[in-house]
Amino acid sequence: MLRPERMSKVSVTGSRGVMPTVIETVHELNLVHLSDYDGSWEGFDNGDPMAGAEQSSEKLVTVRALESTLELSADEAEPGTLETGWEQRLEEVRTRVNELDDRRGEINEELRQINEKIDRVAPFAELGIDLDLLSGYETVAVLVGEGPLDEVEAAVDASEDIRAFETFTGGEIVAVVAAPTADADEDPIDDALVGVDFTRYEVPDTERSPDDYVDELETRKRELESRIDEIDAEFDEIKREEAAFLLRVEEELTVEVQQSEAPLQFATTEHAFVAEGWLPTDEYDRLVTTLNDAVGDSIEVEELVRADYNDEGYPTHTEDVDHGGPGGSDETTDEEEREAATREVAADGGTTATGSTGVVTMVDEPPVVQDNTGAAKPFEFLLRMIDRPKYSELDPTIFLLLTFPAFFGFMIGDLGYGILYTAIGFLLYSRFDSDVIRSLGAIGMWAGGFTMLFGILYGEIFGMHVLGDILFGGSPPMHKGLQPVYSKYSQTWLMLSVLLGLLHLTVGYILGFINDMSHGVAESYFEHGSWALLMLGFWAWIFSLHGVGSAPEYDGPKPSFLYTSLGNGSEAAYELGFTGLPAEVGLYIGIPVAVIGLVTMIYGEVRHYGVLGIIIGGLESFSVLGDVLSYLRIAAVILAKAGMAFVVNMLFFGVYVVETESGAEWHFGTSHAPQYMLEQGTYHGHEVTEVMFNGLLHGGIGTAIIGVFILVLGHIVVLLLGVTSAGLQGIRLEYVEFFNKFYEGGGREFSPFGHERSSDDD
């Protein structure tokens, strides 16, 4: 659908006594996106959480903490049943898990300390000196560390506080034993090495040798790691036994917390409450019926607004609707408060839908439910990578379905790659539960399908032209234009890329015009229509023969392929007879239309920016050329991907060149080596003129094995680069060129108050 699903704002007014039942009923329906009461309504305050809310929240925090500790995710088990006494069971699980977690924390801390000790003692092992010999002296100072020996010895020798010293080395480690003078400071060696790049190591406090000390630490480390494994095994056992229970408790507590905290969004008094929210218009009757069945006449449900909205979320059009709503309560106090609650409180732009005294106490933009089904649904993912549409604008998802896979398939156009893209998409769609991954899978299948379709039309499978020989006798209806003999097709794809750009952008301007119709036809024209006229008029002049000579010369500044690619004769890839629009069309229609578009576009900019709008409009006018030329990337990717696949196959099979009347043909050496074909001299009556590459396949067993590796790896690279080139370029054309003409986004997600209950629920 081009519009998001139609939304209505409803209010539910009733006595405080039925509020818990109303909340539970609305929660079960999972239909209403609640609005937050802003406190601006005199006499009404935000409600308080219902009894037990704090306790439920604390239990929910506990359950989620246990799930985090156990590394439990929702897809690891189905929620189980919740029996009487579950609180006691939860407490037992909490106690057991916390005790194990505390023990694991203590052990991990000891392990950390042991690893630090091992790291500290490692340098001393290189010295080969017992650790007790490196400390505990009163008359000499000892320092162990890492640094340049010559600089250390020179610095110590130059110190006036050291009368004698000796150094010991092992690897990069240096031990300095020095006898200080009688008047030396407390750390004479440290003082001496102030200017030396020296890293000091603390001597471990032990009398054992470094190797024995490390062995002792390693033994203790293995013991602790074994205990960690035992604790992890206990955690796994708890996870197996309690996973379904914890998930069920979390589900139940989530419902309780949602319901108990709902009054915080309501406007309440001592005796009454008013709740408002959004729901799909088609669901209004079900809401009314269900609430009436639950609480009877104790509430009043009213559809406040069913409207189109502007960019700020305010109504621009409302409809009178008459549902014959439910009756009110017979209690005088409640009735009076409800009447007070519905007296002249229409919000900015708001209006009653029933013609009664409905109110809009909370002005908020309606949430968005994208109304796409079937094939278009997965493409919502591509749209949300930018942002979901506003409620007030068109949803372009259907246009993504119609254009993106076609762009992608046209650019890649290979049956082999298309099969792989489709297979990968199917695996993603069928093997994963994530909506995002399934959407990517569905998009992949669509893109793969169009890649296969165009691959058949191009007659290619993994860059080979054998498919064209089988299906079309060597003359498929389309060629990518990489070979000289088919160069006219490459020019045709340039031409077609421009035409696709014009069509795509024109649709974008039309959608933008429709989007802004709420601001008036004139405003919509200045924002979108003027640009469309400028673009179409300018390109009508380009495609005309004005300023260009006649065939076959076509002398002038415009490229001749615009008039030959779809014209007549040997230069036309497809003889459609288009040799350019008449010069009169360009002069008397194209230029005037472009000028009208330019003048009105600049006038629109002046309305926004004043005199500065003349400069802004003039500079921005060049975009009608640049935006269309941006679509030339389609033709560029066609040639680039064809070239990459060609190179991969050339390296393996080799290529020989055959000269024909129409130009050079390139043939892979699939049946004979290219050198053999050159020696034969002809191929199907045409001269073989050269060997482009003889091919690894024909160079012996060793080179053939290398060639197979290059062939497979090369096509994998081409397959992946197809996503990054054709995929990203196609997305860019959608996001930057197309969406920029009409789409803003920024819609609010529809998040109904409710909970998806499992199949085990009562």
List keywords for this structure.
single chain, 762 residues, 22 helices
Quaternary state of this entry equals single chain
Percent of sequence in beta strands: 5-15%
**Through-space gap between termini:** 36 Å
Could you describe the largest sheet, including whether it forms a barrel? 7 strands, antiparallel
Q: What is the percent of helical residues?
A: 40-55%
The whole-number mean of residue pLDDT values reads 85
Number of strands: 15
Summed up, the helix count is 22
Work out the radius of gyration.
Answer: 39 Å
Judged by helices, strands and strand pairing, the structural class is alpha+beta
Q: Which residue ranges are poorly predicted, with pLDDT under 50 across at least 5 consecutive positions?
A: 323-358, 757-762
Silhouette: extended
